Amino acid sequence: MPWHQVALKWENRELNTITCTNCGVAIAKSRPSCPNCGRLNPKAKHEPGSVVVLIGVLVVIVIWGMLTKSYAVMIGLLVVTAIMAAVMDSKEKAKKLQGVEWQLDNLDNFTVSQKVLGADGNTGIAIDEARQSVCLIDSRYELPEFRIVPYKNIISCELFQDGSTVTRTIRSSQIGGALVGGIALGGIGVVVGGLSGKTKSSDTVKRIDLRIIVDDTKSPIHDVNFLNVETKKEGLIDGNYYQQSLLKARHWQGLVEVLIKRADSEESAPVAQPGSLAEEIRKLAELRDSGVLTDEEFVSQKAKLLA
Question: pLDDT tens digits for 101-116?
Fold first, then answer.
């Protein structure tokens, strides 16, 4: 499936894009390679964001404070600058999120039924139930990319917690009853739990990710993050945040599992052969007309076909 590119002028700011010299697809200047053909982008560059500028300001403040020995003033300025950096970073992420959602809602041939954008703001996924397709969102670069794939192209989905597999669903048509980890897999949308060898328990969790594998040799892996900060499993605040993140991740893992099962069910369903009954009746009529069958025999055989 081709990558769907959407150019957007967001709050009077033109997106900084170039055209791939190999395939002609519009890509962000900061993107290291073309997502459509894989050609490296020799003009790739990264513009310094406001947070980077503030870090520079922090360095200047520290140097000034050391030279003038105004430590109290230096500490105060550092605190104020750190707060400003956090606020500006939050505003930039919110603006970026609004832009991605606007583009997603205005894609051609895709109507959003459900959607989620990752906790890190880099990736996401949306579902179009009417068209039986999903949209894989990659917003790591200045120009977000939206890849639309049908349900049948989803090979597997896997839920990770700190790199350990919590659960995995694989299309039965892709595994063919193979053995994975000594467990015979069969049936529709096989669910495999606890495949990871990592068993060490911890009171904290740093990451929760959902990995989706699609039938695309150029970019088969799509990860969506649901937790990207170290969080305690227990406690009033941390525990609740962890549980909400895990609940959302399990919800989307379950949704993708349903899509896999639907695709498997459609492929395994018997294929109807339209016109076969009419063809048999036509043959009987020809036999009757040619004298091979009597009218009574024709009626009797036709009744058997219609029964």
Answer: 888 988 989 999 999 9
Tokens of 72: 């109290």
CA-wise closest residue to 209 among 253, 261, 145, 148: 253
Q: Are residues 114 and 258 in the same domain?
A: yes
Report the DSSP pairing between strands 17-19 and 179-180: unpaired
In the structure encoding, which two tokens stand for residue 192, read together? 């495999």
CA gap 218, 35 in Å, rounded:
8
171 versus 29: the higher-pLDDT residue is 171
Task: Find tokens 């790591």 and name the residue.
Answer: 140
Contact 5, 26 (CB under 8 A): yes
CA neighbor of 138 nearest in space, from 221, 19, 215: 221
Please state, in angstroms and rounded to a whole number, the distance separating the CA atoms of residues 223 and 250.
Answer: 14
- Angle, alpha carbons 178-182-188 (nearest 5°): 45
Per-residue pLDDT tens over the stretch 273-303: 555 778 888 888 887 887 767 888 888 888 8
Same domain? 112 vs 72: no
Same domain, 159 and 132: yes
User: Domain range spanning residue 228?
Assistant: 107-268
Q: Tell me which amino acid residue 184 is.
A: A
Q: Note whether residue 239 is domain-resident.
A: yes
